[in-house]
Specification:
By secondary structure, this protein is of the alpha+beta class. Helices cover 34% and strands 12% of the residues. The radius of gyration is 19 Å and the shape is globular.
Length: 117
């Protein structure tokens, strides 16, 4: 899976998002992204129902406010609760690089390889 691309919005959509607040802002951000998480592309809903395979919608700062990012529509994307929690204090680029990093090799137990219990 490649890196998600940033969404370009028309001037009208920018104005609508800038004026929106709270849940309305989340809905509009999610709609602009096609209802999918910015990071993993899973389908999101505001109030997920168990067993439907959709994750809860949250807003995430591309550059965290703790690292100097502004709470402004250009710095915010819709993300599922799983990715938002895993991202923590990382920038979007740092998080995507960490997600794409190969898994560490598992250490092998020589006793198992020889067939001994």
């Amino acid at each position: 899976m490649g890196r998600p691309r940033r969404i370009r919005m028309s001037g009208r959509m920018k104005a609508v998002l800038a004026a929106a607040k709270g849940k309305d802002w989340r809905r509009k951000k999610a709609k602009a992204q096609g209802g999918r998480c910015f990071y993993c592309q899973c389908e999101m809903v505001e109030e997920p129902v168990k067993g439907q395979g959709r994750r809860e919608l949250t807003l995430d700062h591309l550059l965290p406010t703790s690292r100097g990012g502004a709470h402004h529509w250009e710095n915010v994307v819709a993300a599922c609760i799983t990715c938002n929690g895993a991202k923590g204090d990382m920038t979007a680029d740092e998080f995507m690089a960490a997600r794409m990093a190969p898994a560490p090799a598992l250490s092998r137990n020589p006793m198992i390889e020889k067939g001994q219990p």
